Amino acid sequence: MESRNESDRQKRKLKRTFKFRLNKITKLQPSGNRLKGIDCPKPRSGHRIVVMGGNVYAFGGYTPVVEENTLSHVLFKELWRYNCASKTWKLLETTGKMHETLASHCAVVVDNHMIVFGGTGIPFGETSSNSTYICNLDTLEWTSLETTGSKPVEQYGQAMLIHDKKMYVVGGTTGFAYSIEVHCLDLETKEWKILERKDKSPYNWEPEPRYRLEIAIHENQIFVFGGGTAFESFDFKEVPVFDIENCSWSKVSTSSEFPEPRRCHGCVQMGTDVYICGGFDGSVAFKDIWKFDLNTFHWQKLSATLPTPIYFHSAAVSKAGQLFVFGGVDSIIANTRTNEMFSMWLKIPSLAEMCWQAVLHYMPHISRIDKKKLYQAGIPFQYINEIDFDSPNGTTIARCCNLLES
Protein backbone atom coordinates (compact mmCIF):
# COMPACT_ATOMS: atom_id res chain seq x y z
CA MET A 1 0.00 0.00 0.00
CA GLU A 2 2.84 2.36 0.92
CA SER A 3 4.62 1.68 -2.35
CA ARG A 4 1.47 2.54 -4.28
CA ASN A 5 1.07 5.82 -2.38
CA GLU A 6 4.72 6.62 -2.99
CA SER A 7 4.26 5.88 -6.68
CA ASP A 8 1.25 8.21 -6.81
CA ARG A 9 3.26 10.95 -5.11
CA GLN A 10 6.07 10.54 -7.61
CA LYS A 11 3.61 10.77 -10.51
CA ARG A 12 2.09 13.97 -9.09
CA LYS A 13 5.56 15.41 -8.60
CA LEU A 14 6.56 14.60 -12.17
CA LYS A 15 3.33 16.13 -13.44
CA ARG A 16 4.22 19.38 -11.67
CA THR A 17 7.77 19.38 -13.05
CA PHE A 18 8.41 22.20 -15.53
CA LYS A 19 9.18 21.05 -19.05
CA PHE A 20 9.87 23.45 -21.90
CA ARG A 21 8.12 22.18 -25.02
CA LEU A 22 8.59 23.54 -28.51
CA ASN A 23 5.64 23.60 -30.92
CA LYS A 24 3.14 22.42 -28.31
CA ILE A 25 -0.20 24.21 -27.93
CA THR A 26 -1.13 25.16 -24.36
CA LYS A 27 -4.38 26.69 -23.14
CA LEU A 28 -3.77 29.81 -21.04
CA GLN A 29 -6.10 29.76 -18.06
CA PRO A 30 -7.27 33.13 -16.65
CA SER A 31 -6.79 31.75 -13.14
CA GLY A 32 -6.21 35.23 -11.74
CA ASN A 33 -9.68 36.32 -12.86
CA ARG A 34 -11.29 33.25 -11.32
CA LEU A 35 -9.42 33.75 -8.06
CA LYS A 36 -10.45 37.41 -7.82
CA GLY A 37 -13.95 36.91 -9.20
CA ILE A 38 -13.53 39.47 -11.98
CA ASP A 39 -14.65 39.32 -15.58
CA CYS A 40 -12.73 38.15 -18.63
CA PRO A 41 -13.26 39.41 -22.19
CA LYS A 42 -16.48 38.09 -23.68
CA PRO A 43 -16.25 35.71 -26.65
CA ARG A 44 -15.57 37.66 -29.85
CA SER A 45 -14.37 37.64 -33.44
CA GLY A 46 -12.85 40.23 -35.77
CA HIS A 47 -10.65 41.65 -32.98
CA ARG A 48 -6.86 42.06 -32.99
CA ILE A 49 -4.18 41.22 -30.45
CA VAL A 50 -0.63 42.52 -30.03
CA VAL A 51 2.13 41.50 -27.60
CA MET A 52 4.34 43.86 -25.62
CA GLY A 53 6.62 42.64 -22.85
CA GLY A 54 4.77 40.14 -20.71
CA ASN A 55 1.33 41.30 -21.82
CA VAL A 56 -1.13 40.45 -24.58
CA TYR A 57 -3.45 43.30 -25.58
CA ALA A 58 -6.82 42.56 -27.21
CA PHE A 59 -8.67 45.38 -28.94
CA GLY A 60 -12.18 45.50 -30.39
CA GLY A 61 -14.15 42.62 -31.80
CA TYR A 62 -17.72 41.62 -32.53
CA THR A 63 -20.41 39.28 -31.25
CA PRO A 64 -23.73 38.65 -33.05
CA VAL A 65 -25.90 38.13 -29.97
CA VAL A 66 -25.41 39.80 -26.61
CA GLU A 67 -27.92 38.02 -24.40
CA GLU A 68 -30.65 35.46 -24.72
CA ASN A 69 -33.89 36.65 -26.32
CA THR A 70 -32.19 39.62 -27.97
CA LEU A 71 -31.26 40.22 -31.58
CA SER A 72 -28.76 42.96 -30.90
CA HIS A 73 -25.21 43.02 -32.19
CA VAL A 74 -22.27 44.39 -30.28
CA LEU A 75 -18.91 45.84 -31.17
CA PHE A 76 -16.53 45.76 -28.23
CA LYS A 77 -15.21 49.28 -27.73
CA GLU A 78 -12.62 48.15 -25.23
CA LEU A 79 -8.98 47.32 -24.69
CA TRP A 80 -8.04 44.31 -22.56
CA ARG A 81 -4.66 43.25 -21.23
CA TYR A 82 -3.69 39.68 -20.33
CA ASN A 83 -0.70 39.50 -18.01
CA CYS A 84 1.17 36.25 -18.54
CA ALA A 85 2.75 36.29 -15.07
CA SER A 86 -0.44 36.83 -13.04
CA LYS A 87 -2.61 34.95 -15.59
CA THR A 88 -5.15 37.75 -15.35
CA TRP A 89 -7.22 39.68 -17.88
CA LYS A 90 -7.81 43.34 -17.04
CA LEU A 91 -10.14 45.80 -18.79
CA LEU A 92 -8.10 48.96 -19.25
CA GLU A 93 -9.35 52.48 -18.72
CA THR A 94 -8.05 54.61 -21.57
CA THR A 95 -8.19 58.33 -22.30
CA GLY A 96 -8.63 60.20 -25.56
CA LYS A 97 -10.82 59.30 -28.51
CA MET A 98 -10.72 55.56 -29.17
CA HIS A 99 -10.77 54.00 -32.63
CA GLU A 100 -14.43 53.20 -33.35
CA THR A 101 -14.52 50.76 -36.28
CA LEU A 102 -13.97 47.70 -34.17
CA ALA A 103 -14.32 44.69 -36.48
CA SER A 104 -11.74 43.41 -38.97
CA HIS A 105 -9.38 46.32 -38.37
CA CYS A 106 -5.58 46.05 -38.31
CA ALA A 107 -3.27 46.47 -35.33
CA VAL A 108 0.49 46.37 -34.80
CA VAL A 109 2.72 47.40 -31.90
CA VAL A 110 5.75 49.68 -32.33
CA ASP A 111 7.83 51.14 -29.50
CA ASN A 112 5.16 50.66 -26.81
CA HIS A 113 2.46 52.08 -29.10
CA MET A 114 -0.38 50.12 -30.67
CA ILE A 115 -1.27 51.43 -34.14
CA VAL A 116 -4.81 50.65 -35.33
CA PHE A 117 -6.08 51.20 -38.87
CA GLY A 118 -9.27 50.56 -40.84
CA GLY A 119 -12.08 48.27 -39.78
CA THR A 120 -15.85 48.42 -39.89
CA GLY A 121 -18.84 49.10 -37.71
CA ILE A 122 -22.29 47.53 -38.06
CA PRO A 123 -23.78 46.87 -40.57
CA PHE A 124 -20.49 45.64 -42.00
CA GLY A 125 -19.16 47.94 -44.72
CA GLU A 126 -21.55 50.82 -44.09
CA THR A 127 -19.28 52.56 -41.59
CA SER A 128 -15.78 51.51 -42.60
CA SER A 129 -12.67 53.53 -41.82
CA ASN A 130 -9.39 54.75 -43.29
CA SER A 131 -8.29 56.49 -40.10
CA THR A 132 -5.19 55.72 -38.08
CA TYR A 133 -5.25 55.74 -34.29
CA ILE A 134 -2.41 55.21 -31.84
CA CYS A 135 -2.70 54.00 -28.25
CA ASN A 136 0.26 54.57 -25.94
CA LEU A 137 0.34 51.29 -24.01
CA ASP A 138 2.25 52.91 -21.14
CA THR A 139 -0.09 55.87 -20.57
CA LEU A 140 -3.19 54.24 -22.17
CA GLU A 141 -3.92 57.43 -24.12
CA TRP A 142 -5.48 57.32 -27.60
CA THR A 143 -4.60 59.86 -30.28
CA SER A 144 -5.75 60.22 -33.87
CA LEU A 145 -2.92 60.43 -36.39
CA GLU A 146 -3.44 63.32 -38.80
CA THR A 147 -2.16 62.31 -42.23
CA THR A 148 -1.84 63.74 -45.74
CA GLY A 149 -1.52 62.27 -49.21
CA SER A 150 -3.48 59.54 -50.99
CA LYS A 151 -5.29 57.65 -48.25
CA PRO A 152 -6.71 54.20 -48.97
CA VAL A 153 -10.48 54.15 -49.36
CA GLU A 154 -12.53 53.31 -46.27
CA GLN A 155 -12.34 49.52 -45.95
CA TYR A 156 -12.03 46.61 -43.55
CA GLY A 157 -10.25 43.26 -43.59
CA GLN A 158 -6.96 44.79 -44.74
CA ALA A 159 -3.54 43.43 -43.78
CA MET A 160 -0.89 45.70 -42.30
CA LEU A 161 2.77 45.66 -41.25
CA ILE A 162 5.52 48.10 -40.28
CA HIS A 163 8.89 48.16 -42.08
CA ASP A 164 11.60 50.84 -41.91
CA LYS A 165 9.30 53.37 -40.21
CA LYS A 166 6.66 52.91 -42.88
CA MET A 167 3.25 51.31 -42.56
CA TYR A 168 2.11 49.13 -45.45
CA VAL A 169 -1.57 48.28 -45.96
CA VAL A 170 -2.69 45.67 -48.50
CA GLY A 171 -6.14 44.65 -49.72
CA GLY A 172 -9.48 45.01 -47.95
CA THR A 173 -13.12 45.44 -48.85
CA THR A 174 -15.79 48.11 -48.73
CA GLY A 175 -18.33 45.35 -48.16
CA PHE A 176 -19.11 45.30 -51.88
CA ALA A 177 -15.84 45.74 -53.78
CA TYR A 178 -12.51 44.10 -52.97
CA SER A 179 -9.01 45.49 -53.32
CA ILE A 180 -5.43 44.34 -53.72
CA GLU A 181 -3.96 47.85 -53.69
CA VAL A 182 -0.82 48.52 -51.68
CA HIS A 183 -0.64 51.77 -49.71
CA CYS A 184 2.25 53.13 -47.67
CA LEU A 185 2.14 55.61 -44.78
CA ASP A 186 5.46 57.23 -43.89
CA LEU A 187 5.30 57.39 -40.09
CA GLU A 188 7.77 60.28 -40.00
CA THR A 189 6.21 62.58 -42.62
CA LYS A 190 2.64 61.24 -41.99
CA GLU A 191 2.08 61.09 -45.76
CA TRP A 192 0.17 58.33 -47.58
CA LYS A 193 1.18 57.05 -51.01
CA ILE A 194 -0.34 54.40 -53.22
CA LEU A 195 2.34 52.07 -54.56
CA GLU A 196 1.70 51.21 -58.19
CA ARG A 197 3.69 50.70 -61.35
CA LYS A 198 4.19 53.59 -63.70
CA ASP A 199 3.80 51.09 -66.52
CA LYS A 200 0.02 50.54 -66.71
CA SER A 201 0.23 47.68 -69.19
CA PRO A 202 -2.72 45.28 -68.97
CA TYR A 203 -0.18 42.45 -69.22
CA ASN A 204 1.26 43.22 -65.79
CA TRP A 205 0.16 40.43 -63.46
CA GLU A 206 -1.41 41.13 -60.11
CA PRO A 207 -3.28 38.86 -57.68
CA GLU A 208 -7.05 38.78 -57.28
CA PRO A 209 -8.55 41.43 -54.95
CA ARG A 210 -9.25 40.07 -51.47
CA TYR A 211 -9.88 40.73 -47.80
CA ARG A 212 -8.90 38.96 -44.55
CA LEU A 213 -5.51 38.19 -46.08
CA GLU A 214 -2.26 38.17 -44.11
CA ILE A 215 1.14 39.55 -45.09
CA ALA A 216 4.84 39.30 -44.20
CA ILE A 217 7.93 41.12 -45.43
CA HIS A 218 11.39 39.89 -46.43
CA GLU A 219 14.11 41.72 -48.38
CA ASN A 220 11.75 44.56 -49.36
CA GLN A 221 9.13 42.15 -50.67
CA ILE A 222 5.65 41.76 -49.21
CA PHE A 223 4.35 38.19 -49.28
CA VAL A 224 0.56 37.73 -49.37
CA PHE A 225 -0.97 34.70 -47.68
CA GLY A 226 -4.50 33.61 -48.50
CA GLY A 227 -7.54 35.81 -48.09
CA GLY A 228 -10.65 35.82 -50.21
CA THR A 229 -14.06 37.28 -50.92
CA ALA A 230 -17.54 36.37 -49.73
CA PHE A 231 -17.58 33.63 -52.37
CA GLU A 232 -14.05 32.19 -52.59
CA SER A 233 -10.78 31.71 -50.76
CA PHE A 234 -7.32 31.79 -52.33
CA ASP A 235 -4.72 29.06 -52.14
CA PHE A 236 -1.12 28.89 -50.96
CA LYS A 237 0.47 26.90 -53.77
CA GLU A 238 1.62 30.15 -55.33
CA VAL A 239 2.26 33.10 -53.03
CA PRO A 240 1.80 36.63 -54.44
CA VAL A 241 4.77 38.92 -53.79
CA PHE A 242 4.88 42.73 -54.03
CA ASP A 243 8.25 44.44 -54.48
CA ILE A 244 8.08 47.74 -52.58
CA GLU A 245 11.04 49.22 -54.48
CA ASN A 246 9.78 48.83 -58.06
CA CYS A 247 6.08 48.52 -57.13
CA SER A 248 5.57 45.33 -59.09
CA TRP A 249 3.73 42.08 -58.45
CA SER A 250 5.08 38.58 -59.00
CA LYS A 251 4.42 35.17 -57.52
CA VAL A 252 6.55 32.39 -56.14
CA SER A 253 5.80 28.70 -56.47
CA THR A 254 6.02 26.86 -53.19
CA SER A 255 7.49 23.42 -52.63
CA SER A 256 6.01 20.37 -50.92
CA GLU A 257 2.53 20.11 -49.41
CA PHE A 258 0.78 23.43 -48.82
CA PRO A 259 -2.24 24.67 -46.79
CA GLU A 260 -5.76 24.46 -48.16
CA PRO A 261 -7.27 27.74 -49.43
CA ARG A 262 -8.54 29.95 -46.61
CA ARG A 263 -9.32 33.42 -45.33
CA CYS A 264 -9.80 34.81 -41.80
CA HIS A 265 -6.74 32.89 -40.55
CA GLY A 266 -4.14 33.92 -38.00
CA CYS A 267 -0.60 34.76 -39.09
CA VAL A 268 2.68 35.82 -37.46
CA GLN A 269 6.20 36.38 -38.75
CA MET A 270 9.25 35.24 -36.79
CA GLY A 271 12.40 36.24 -38.67
CA THR A 272 12.29 34.47 -42.04
CA ASP A 273 9.54 32.09 -40.94
CA VAL A 274 5.81 32.76 -41.28
CA TYR A 275 3.23 30.78 -39.33
CA ILE A 276 -0.47 30.55 -40.19
CA CYS A 277 -3.16 28.89 -38.10
CA GLY A 278 -6.87 28.20 -38.44
CA GLY A 279 -9.04 29.97 -41.00
CA PHE A 280 -12.11 29.32 -43.13
CA ASP A 281 -12.68 28.45 -46.79
CA GLY A 282 -16.39 29.33 -46.93
CA SER A 283 -17.64 25.96 -45.74
CA VAL A 284 -14.91 24.39 -43.59
CA ALA A 285 -12.99 25.85 -40.64
CA PHE A 286 -9.41 24.76 -39.92
CA LYS A 287 -7.29 24.08 -36.85
CA ASP A 288 -3.98 23.25 -38.54
CA ILE A 289 -0.73 25.20 -38.13
CA TRP A 290 1.77 25.71 -40.97
CA LYS A 291 5.24 27.24 -41.28
CA PHE A 292 6.51 28.95 -44.44
CA ASP A 293 10.20 29.65 -45.06
CA LEU A 294 10.64 33.02 -46.80
CA ASN A 295 14.04 31.94 -48.17
CA THR A 296 13.20 28.53 -49.61
CA PHE A 297 9.43 28.99 -50.20
CA HIS A 298 8.89 25.68 -48.44
CA TRP A 299 5.71 24.89 -46.48
CA GLN A 300 5.82 22.63 -43.43
CA LYS A 301 2.73 21.36 -41.64
CA LEU A 302 3.36 21.22 -37.89
CA SER A 303 2.23 18.28 -35.81
CA ALA A 304 0.63 20.71 -33.35
CA THR A 305 -2.93 21.86 -34.00
CA LEU A 306 -5.34 24.26 -32.37
CA PRO A 307 -7.76 22.43 -30.02
CA THR A 308 -10.70 23.32 -32.24
CA PRO A 309 -11.18 24.83 -35.72
CA ILE A 310 -11.47 28.62 -35.51
CA TYR A 311 -11.55 31.63 -37.81
CA PHE A 312 -11.83 35.40 -37.44
CA HIS A 313 -9.44 34.92 -34.51
CA SER A 314 -6.23 36.88 -33.96
CA ALA A 315 -2.63 35.79 -33.51
CA ALA A 316 0.51 37.59 -32.34
CA VAL A 317 4.04 36.60 -31.34
CA SER A 318 6.37 37.89 -28.64
CA LYS A 319 9.98 38.88 -29.31
CA ALA A 320 11.03 35.75 -27.43
CA GLY A 321 9.08 33.57 -29.87
CA GLN A 322 5.87 32.77 -28.00
CA LEU A 323 2.77 32.57 -30.21
CA PHE A 324 -0.59 33.69 -28.81
CA VAL A 325 -3.98 32.92 -30.40
CA PHE A 326 -7.15 34.49 -28.98
CA GLY A 327 -10.88 34.35 -29.71
CA GLY A 328 -12.59 33.69 -33.01
CA VAL A 329 -15.61 31.84 -34.37
CA ASP A 330 -15.54 28.27 -33.04
CA SER A 331 -18.73 26.86 -34.59
CA ILE A 332 -19.98 27.42 -38.12
CA ILE A 333 -23.42 25.95 -37.46
CA ALA A 334 -24.07 27.63 -34.10
CA ASN A 335 -22.20 30.81 -35.12
CA THR A 336 -20.61 31.00 -31.67
CA ARG A 337 -17.44 32.73 -30.54
CA THR A 338 -14.79 31.81 -28.01
CA ASN A 339 -12.75 33.80 -25.51
CA GLU A 340 -10.09 31.15 -25.02
CA MET A 341 -6.42 31.92 -25.54
CA PHE A 342 -3.74 29.46 -26.55
CA SER A 343 0.03 29.68 -26.65
CA MET A 344 2.90 27.87 -28.37
CA TRP A 345 6.65 28.42 -28.44
CA LEU A 346 7.91 28.77 -32.00
CA LYS A 347 11.60 28.77 -31.11
CA ILE A 348 13.80 27.96 -28.13
CA PRO A 349 14.15 31.22 -26.17
CA SER A 350 17.14 32.42 -24.16
CA LEU A 351 18.08 30.50 -21.03
CA ALA A 352 16.97 33.49 -18.94
CA GLU A 353 13.52 33.43 -20.57
CA MET A 354 13.25 29.69 -20.06
CA CYS A 355 14.14 30.10 -16.37
CA TRP A 356 11.48 32.80 -16.08
CA GLN A 357 8.90 30.42 -17.52
CA ALA A 358 9.95 27.85 -14.92
CA VAL A 359 9.54 30.42 -12.13
CA LEU A 360 6.01 31.20 -13.35
CA HIS A 361 5.23 27.48 -13.49
CA TYR A 362 6.28 26.84 -9.89
CA MET A 363 4.90 30.11 -8.52
CA PRO A 364 1.41 30.58 -9.98
CA HIS A 365 0.64 33.29 -7.38
CA ILE A 366 3.77 35.34 -8.01
CA SER A 367 1.70 38.53 -8.43
CA ARG A 368 0.95 38.42 -4.68
CA ILE A 369 4.58 38.49 -3.58
CA ASP A 370 6.36 41.66 -2.51
CA LYS A 371 8.62 43.01 -5.27
CA LYS A 372 11.52 43.36 -2.85
CA LYS A 373 11.34 39.69 -1.93
CA LEU A 374 11.38 38.72 -5.60
CA TYR A 375 14.46 40.84 -6.19
CA GLN A 376 16.17 39.41 -3.10
CA ALA A 377 15.44 35.94 -4.48
CA GLY A 378 17.50 36.82 -7.54
CA ILE A 379 14.78 37.56 -10.10
CA PRO A 380 15.96 40.34 -12.47
CA PHE A 381 14.02 43.60 -12.56
CA GLN A 382 13.20 43.12 -16.26
CA TYR A 383 11.04 40.14 -15.29
CA ILE A 384 9.67 41.63 -12.08
CA ASN A 385 8.44 44.57 -14.17
CA GLU A 386 6.44 42.15 -16.34
CA ILE A 387 4.24 41.18 -13.38
CA ASP A 388 0.84 42.80 -12.95
CA PHE A 389 0.88 42.86 -9.15
CA ASP A 390 -2.26 42.62 -7.06
CA SER A 391 -1.07 45.73 -5.17
CA PRO A 392 1.67 48.31 -5.86
CA ASN A 393 4.22 46.49 -3.70
CA GLY A 394 2.77 43.01 -3.94
CA THR A 395 1.22 41.13 -1.03
CA THR A 396 3.36 38.63 0.81
CA ILE A 397 1.73 35.23 0.82
CA ALA A 398 3.29 32.76 3.23
CA ARG A 399 3.04 29.81 0.88
CA CYS A 400 4.78 31.66 -1.94
CA CYS A 401 7.45 33.09 0.36
CA ASN A 402 8.26 29.62 1.58
CA LEU A 403 8.85 28.64 -2.05
CA LEU A 404 11.15 31.63 -2.49
CA GLU A 405 13.19 30.89 0.62
CA SER A 406 13.45 27.13 0.08
TrEMBL record:
Any one Gene Ontology BP term: positive regulation of stress-activated MAPK cascade
Classification via Pfam families: Kelch_1, Kelch_KLHDC2_KLHL20_DRC7
Keywords annotated in UniProt: Kelch repeat, Repeat
Domain of life from the UniProt record: Eukaryota
Family per similarity comment: Belongs to the KLHDC10 family.
PANTHER family tied to this protein: KELCH DOMAIN-CONTAINING PROTEIN 10
Protein name as catalogued: Kelch domain-containing protein 10
Source organism of this protein record: Araneus ventricosus (Orbweaver spider)
